[in-house]
């Protein structure tokens, strides 16, 4: 992991004006059932961040897509805040920034939007410093994992494919595995949000030993199923550590997962939810999954009943058949 030692605030250098960097980062699905805080898959759904430096100290934003009307347009914007942090770690600070972002990944739905934004920001910062101070991708993984608190979304966002991540003391590491070409990810994104922070607060501080033992068997099986034998995806995606504890915060998603699994499909909560991820073993099964989700949606599962208003709210779902992204984040540095 190479990067310069952190400089004191007084010695921070200002990044050169007139630079422009564009980064495209895939969405990611973490956990995949039993791989809690460890496994993550990169998906063919991309956010793009474009940053230009200026010497006027001003921040300017051009945001489109998800969050365009709600995200802050000041130094508290996740991308700006993370660029500032990464630059500081590298011994730099910024003056003015022009940030354009096209956000495609939905926020707060379990598709790693905050991880994608964090990865984009750290990769931008890495390009804005002098070449001699440029960090490698292990440093990028470390900082992004520290910011997110866990590596399972940021690793596939950086490297693509299936990332198997772990922690050695304070150091985050990852190994990237190639996914079997028959595996087809399908996401069913409900119309309600769930913050990762809330979903994490629902987990117990310890689990019974038999649950941990069962989970480790399934996590091992899942890696084999995803890379070598997709016919084992249903048993490989059984989880014992998190999904059941979070059900109360995402009933419609839990109901859809039960329905899909009962019909023989490998369905799990994507990340901290509430999106449902199904991993089909081939195009034919992917068609069946899409049809099953549509039947479930038409059945009109009840999301909330407001008895005072005598009104029933029903969940609506956006279903997308995606590919596994095998490239990870792509950085383009525009010549001056
Ligand atoms: N592209 C972005 N630009 C700025 N802020 C973002 C961006 N994407 C996400 N965020 C911030 O992160 C929040 C969502 O983070 P959260 O961790 O709750 O969900 P997620 O990352 O979408 O899902 P998960 O971590 O379960 O996969 C948003 O509400 C927003 O504040
Ligand atoms: N492993 C994380 C993924 C969401 O960021 C969780 O389930 O809380």
In terms of structural class, how would the helical and strand content be classed? alpha+beta
Element-level helix/strand string: EEEEHEEHHHEEEHHHHHEEHEEEE
What is the approximate shape?
globular
Q: Which fold name corresponds to the CATH topology of the largest domain? A: Ribosomal Protein S5, domain 2
Calculate the mean pLDDT score and round it: 93
Number of helices: 10
Total DSSP E strands: 15
Helical proportion, percent range: 25-40%
Question: Span between N and C termini?
Answer: 29 Å
Low-confidence stretches: 301-312
The CATH architecture name of the largest domain reads: 2-Layer Sandwich
| Estimated radius of gyration | 21 Å
Percent of residues in beta strands: 25-35%
Q: What is the level 1 CATH name of the largest domain?
A: Alpha Beta
Pfam families: GHMP_kinases_C, GHMP_kinases_N
Pathway: Amino-acid biosynthesis; L-threonine biosynthesis; L-threonine from L-aspartate: step 4/5
Protein name: Homoserine kinase
Catalytic activity: L-homoserine + ATP = O-phospho-L-homoserine + ADP + H(+)
